[in-house]
Amino acid sequence: MAKPVGAVTRGTTNPNRLRRVDAFLAYRCGALLADAEDPLVVDLGYGATPVTAVELWARLAATVRPDVRVVGLEIDPERVAAAQPDADPPGLEFRRGGFELAGLRPVVVRAFNVLRQYAEDEVAAAWRAMTAGGAFLVEGTCDELGRIATWACVDSTGPRSLTFSARLAALDHPATFAERLPKALIHRNVPGEPVYDLMRALGRAWDSSATPFGARQRWLATVARLRDEGLPVLDGPARWRLGELSVPWPETAAGPILH
After folding, report:
1. How far apart are CA 99 and CA 121, in angstroms?
2. Cα(139)–Cα(258) distance, rounded to whole angstroms?
3. Strands 148-155 and 69-74, sheet pairing
4. What is the pLDDT of residue 204?
5. 85 with 16: CB under 8 angstroms?
6. Is 154's pLDDT higher than 80?
């Protein structure tokens, strides 16, 4: 096998840290996996322990199709070796690999809290490598407990959407999302950039939607206000009630990121 592409990252993780993105992945990619001849998902950079890869397999097997396959990839061979005892289900395994995906051709790739540890100018090449074989990529970052997260949906043509996701009871203000933006956007949250305008609009809508009826109602009112202002909000109330907001990918002032 060719040498894995990438660098060893810190590898910190926690059980249930990626539950929010897993639920979204089952929703957004469920049809892709259901229709696939080989329903293969790659979990790239699962970390020092394989717990989130194990959880991903269990959730997809229960909600999408029982024969789904999940391959966890890590560059560090010691992490791969340490994960082998957890490869008990026939649909779960662990291999050494990086952005080249160990030569696999998955339907979906999840890469979370990985590119956050790279330089911004390395993002486009990593996206191209992970989507070159036709995979649908969900790439993003979250806090240590998985209560605040953002992610990009990317295909071979480039980034398609940006999702904000929060445990609403823990959300003090949407400005909290700024420090968890995907690497492609986190340094572009400055005046003159579309993501900056998006974050300001989200904050204004939240500030104008205070209600005595709780955080969920405030979030729903925030999303409604954004729609009324003309923001092309994706999905529908069932997702919004979960604390999600997906919008078309905000292009950068410098132009498309992938190409």
Report:
1. 15
2. 13
3. unpaired
4. 97
5. no
6. yes
Interatomic CA distance for residues 148 and 157, integer angstroms: 27
End-to-end CA distance of the chain: 28
The 10 Å Cβ neighbour count of residue 230 is 8
95-137 pLDDT, tens digit each? 999 999 999 999 999 999 999 989 999 999 999 999 999 999 9
User: Which of 256, 119, 111 is CA-nearest to residue 186?
Assistant: 119
d(CA 18, CA 233): 23
Q: Is residue 213 exposed (0-12), middle (13-18) or buried (19+ Cβ within 10 Å)?
A: exposed
Gap between the Cα atoms of 43 and 228, Å rounded: 37
**Any idea how long the chain is?**
259
Quick one: angle between helices 51-63 and 19-35, nearest 10?
A: 50
Residues of the chain with CATH 3.40.50.150: 19-166
Question: Has domain 19-166 been given CATH number 3.40.50.150?
Answer: yes
Q: Is 187 helix (H, G, I), strand (E, B) or coil?
A: coil
Interatomic CA distance for residues 153 and 138, integer angstroms: 5
Confidence of residue 2 (pLDDT cuts 50, 70, 90): low
The pLDDT value given to residue 8: 85
β pairing state of 136-142 and 148-155: antiparallel
The predicted-structure confidence for 210-221, as pLDDT tens digits, reads as follows 998 999 999 999
Is residue 259 very low, low, confident or very high in pLDDT (cuts 50, 70, 90)? Answer: very low
What lies within 8 Å, CB to CB, of 3 at 6+ separation is none
